[in-house]
Amino acid sequence: MHLHALGPAGNAAMVAAMDSLNVTTAVFLGTPDMLSSRPRVGAANLIPALTLPCEGGRLPTSGAQCFPGGAEWPDTADLRARIARGEIKALGEITAQYAGIPPDDPRLEPYLAIAAELDVPVGIHLGFAAPGVAYAASRFPPHKSPNYSGRAGSPLLLEPVLTRFPKLRLYVMHAAWPFEEEMIYMLYMHPQLYVDVSVLQWAIPRPAYYSYLRRLVDAGFGKRIMFGSDGSARHLRAGIEAIENAVFLTETQKIDILYGNAARFLKLEGAGSS
């Protein structure tokens, strides 16, 4: 549910990893240019998802230019046209938090309204990001986001969005770690909400990841947790192994997280209700 465009070399390695690991479907996140040149992945299906917004006209994760003319937001008429042509089938990663914009901000509403109207799934970044992403002196993030706000990443700020657009297919990327209590509350109160566990398998210590994952499962949300890598071929392998080696998960829960829940959320043919 969370595969970023990685450039030619990275994409080639990811394609090979996907084929070897029997990854049949992935939500492929990027700019219009990245989506139009997405790689071939054997028999797999890459679902093109548009990343927005882009503070200063550039992707917060890499600094690549996003939209024509250096725009920070995509043109809504162009977005509708691209959706109609099948060039965009999802919105994500919604990176508003990098610009300090909360999910209930009016600037996001036109895009969420389009997604709700056209039944386009949406993935939104909430919770944490690369350490030091707001600091110019930090060497860790490749591109700095001086307005990044933890406050803007609280899952509670999704509540007015979900009540305004109750049919919106929305999932929270990274399961909003470390906002555990808020995330559990939102899953409980909003049965249409899902999460992905991307990045958690490699960005935080494994015991912390397992503790968070187990808390979500024990709270009764095993049917709404979806797998994601948010990284390289190595991270894809590590993420799948982390789920397969989680002794607290049943075999059914592992299958749900690795495939079944996402198939249902994405309305893939033959997904059923498993």
Mean pLDDT: 94
User: Strand order, biggest sheet?
Assistant: 1-2-3-4-5-6-7-8
Discrete helix count:
10
Order of helices and strands: EHEHEHEHEHEHEHHEHH
What class, by secondary structure content? alpha/beta
Instruction: Calculate the terminal CA-CA distance, rounded to whole Å.
Output: 17 Å
Sum up the overall morphology in one term: globular
- Ranges where pLDDT stays below 50 over 5 or more residues in a row are none
Strand content: 5-15%
Count the strands?
A: 8
**Cα-atom radius of gyration:** 17 Å
Major pleated sheet: 8 strands, parallel
Helix content: 25-40%
Could you please describe the fold and organization of this structure?
This protein starts with a strand and ends in a 9-residue tail after the last helix. Helix 1 runs parallel beside helix 9. The chain is globular, with a radius of gyration of 17 Å. It has an eight-stranded parallel beta sheet with strand order 1-2-3-4-5-6-7-8. The protein has 274 residues and is of the alpha/beta class. The chain contains ten helices and eight strands. The chain has helices at residues 7-20, 32-36, 76-84, 109-118, 159-164, 180-189, 200-203, 206-218, 233-244, 251-265; strands at residues 3-4, 25-30, 45-52, 90-94, 122-125, 170-173, 194-196, 225-226.
